[in-house]
TrEMBL record:
It comes from Ktedonosporobacter rubrisoli. Residues 36-46 have a biased composition (Basic and acidic residues). This is Catalase. One of its GO terms (cellular component) is cytosol. The chain holds residues 2 to 538 of 715 of the full protein. Belongs to the catalase family. HPII subfamily. The lineage of its organism: Bacteria, Bacillati, Chloroflexota, Ktedonobacteria, Ktedonobacterales. Heme binds at residues 72, 112, 161, 358, 362, 369.
Length: 537
């Protein structure tokens, strides 16, 4: 593959072949037959009946009848934009990923921002996590960084994801509330799941009310791996830092905006790009050595934890610029298919059990959402790197494969693809040694649920703390079950007694006597935080 061929227009040019403009063209059927009249159906006599032979009527209504596809099971509401990414200096020391080598190269990207809980038509300014998913069309294939605007997640193991989403989505009998967490099932679940406490603190904070997608951080959340050309691996956490800084709305502003302009965030993104005021984000990485896997007082495979920037600083390695709005919301923003399993040579996974489950889920859901196995051929999803393989057929197949043999090994077919060696950027999975019994348990190193929630609470300014407490009063105040409210206050008492007291005062439950289990529950057998100060990178 030749990196120098990519530039910021590469993806746009590839889409030109399918972009359609009907201006000054005749109206036709899907078969290209020109249509002189589209206001009246064909009838036997002026007052009917309508004739079945009216192929224009049948085709027009048939197509309309099938316009909707299932919305995403989560992150249904979103807005997308194209742009490009440019690395500041070669990262060859750490990764062989082609798009992180050459500062002169502009790698085309498509980004989709989203809310998580609400349906496609819900308001933008609700209290929720925001998705920040980036598709890099690199010369070595597509890399998707499918992140959120919080650096952590609710759960530690993907097997809890269906439970989480059933709890936070609208209640099953009355489908209320439309797009919010202020209801019994959500807080029932959180109150019974101490590992979610850190994330619920972020959810109650102003971080859940971004002022603009242009003013929002992004995080890959999981620990990934960078692998260099010598095969050496290091751990990496991904960050997006907005050039405009991170800003939130106040609760009152979000409520007014949900009424006055429910499209507030998508309109802001669209208009900024139309005006040439291009949103920019720096890509940051926290890099650390494999030998430091156990250097932290938490597990680096636990997605409910950050790696504090004081321990591993964020190095800014490149810039993302969004400079073009899609032409067609459905074709591009709705049909785009992100997947954390889309990695390129030089980037690999870790054993984070949340990440491992995601690797199954996205492809699985897209098979139904996008109608079969050929959705990688939808223009927005097509890589810029050439695609050659022996996958064949299936609903909506577009490619006309010309080889006779679609199997390995074969001796019949000329033009059959060859296997790519590592030197040609063939993807080789990182070889990690695993020698352990099969178990259905969770490591003790995942069991400190509160110390980072305390860290987060203490990092907030007094005004931000007031906002969080007010949010808890609103959210938990809507919960009918007193037992749920009490359990939540009980969990927050583990985080900070003053926080629990202030929340309890506003939601009609008893103030906890004392902090029941203050501070950190240190995982056994781990090295101390002081050790982390001496990290090698
Ligand atoms: C969609 C992020 C955890 C399943 C998304 C999207 C984002 C995202 C940004 C929207 C993609 C788009 O714009 O099209 C995350 C993050 C997670 C997480 C950061 C945790 C760190 C999970 C888990 C599962 C899951 C654990 C399942 C086990 C899904 C599904 C979709 C989705 C099914 C819909 C995809 C589609 O229909 O195209 N996620 N997610 N996510 N996520 Fe996650």
């Amino acid at each position: 593959s030749d990196q120098s061929q990519l530039n910021e227009n590469s993806k746009k040019q590839s889409l030109d072949t399918v972009r359609e403009n009907a201006e000054k063209q005749y109206l036709t059927t899907n078969q290209g037959v020109r249509i002189p009249h589209t206001d009246d159906s064909l009838k036997a006599g002026e007052r009917g009946p309508t004739l079945l032979e009216d192929f224009h009527l049948r085709e027009k209504i048939m197509h309309f009848d099938h316009e909707r596809i299932p919305e995403r099971v989560v992150h249904a509401r979103g807005a997308g934009a194209y742009g490009y990414f440019q690395v500041y200096e070669s990262m060859a020391e750490y990764t062989r990923a082609s798009f992180l080598q050459n500062p002169a190269e502009k790698t085309p990207v498509f980004v989709r921002f989203s809310t998580v809980v609400g349906s496609r038509g819900s308001a933008d300014t609700v209290r929720d996590v925001r998705g920040f998913a980036t598709k890099f069309y690199t010369s070595d294939g597509v890399f998707d960084l499918v992140g959120n605007n919080f650096p952590i997640f609710f759960i530690q193991d993907a097997i809890k994801f269906p439970d989480l989403v059933h709890a936070v989505k609208p209640e099953p009998d009355n489908e209320m509330p439309q797009a919010a967490t202020a209801h019994d099932t959500a807080w029932d679940f959180f109150s019974l799941l101490p590992e979610a406490t850190h994330m619920t603190m972020w959810l109650l904070s102003d971080r859940a009310l971004p002022r603009s997608f242009r003013m929002m951080e992004g995080f890959g959340v999981h620990t990934f791996r960078f692998i260099n050309a010598q095969g050496r691996a290091r751990f990496v956490k991904f960050h997006w830092k907005p050039a405009l800084g991170a800003h939130s709305m106040t609760w009152d502003e979000t409520q007014k905006m949900a009424g006055q302009d429910p499209d507030w965030l998508r309109r802001d993104l669209w208009e900024a790009i139309e005006m040439g005021d291009y949103p920019e984000y720096e890509l940051g990485v926290q890099l650390f050595e494999e030998s430091d896997e156990f250097a932290f007082p938490f597990d680096i495979l636990d997605a409910t934890k950050i790696i504090p920037e004081e321990l591993v600083p964020v190095r800014r390695i490149g810039k993302l610029t969004l400079n073009r709005n899609p032409d067609n919301f459905f074709a591009e923003t709705e049909q785009v298919a992100f997947h954390p399993g889309h990695v390129v040579s030089g980037i690999d996974f870790t054993n984070d059990p949340l990440l491992q489950g995601r690797l199954f889920s996205y492809l699985d859901t897209q098979l139904i959402r996008l109608g079969g196995p050929n959705f990688a051929e939808i223009p927005v999803n097509r890589p810029l790197a050439p695609v050659h393989n022996n996958q064949r057929d299936g609903y909506m197949r577009q490619t006309i494969n010309t080889e006779k043999a679609s199997y390995f090994p074969n001796s019949l077919s000329q033009g059959c693809p060859m296997l790519a060696p590592e030197s040609a950027h063939g993807y080789v999975h990182y070889s990690e040694k695993i020698n352990a019994p099969t178990v259905r348990t969770r490591s003790d190193s995942f069991k400190d649920y509160f110390s980072q929630a305390t860290l987060f609470w203490k990092s907030l300014s007094p005004a931000e703390q007031d906002h969080l407490v007010a949010a808890a009063h609103f959210e938990l105040g809507k919960v009918e079950s007193r037992a749920i409210r009490e359990r939540m206050v009980g969990l927050y008492a583990h985080v900070d007694h003053d926080l629990a007291r202030r929340i309890a005062e506003g939601i009609g439950v008893n103030i906890p006597q004392d902090n029941p289990r203050p501070g950190v529950l240190p995982p056994q057998g781990r090295r101390s935080v002081e050790r982390s100060a001496a990290l090698s990178l």
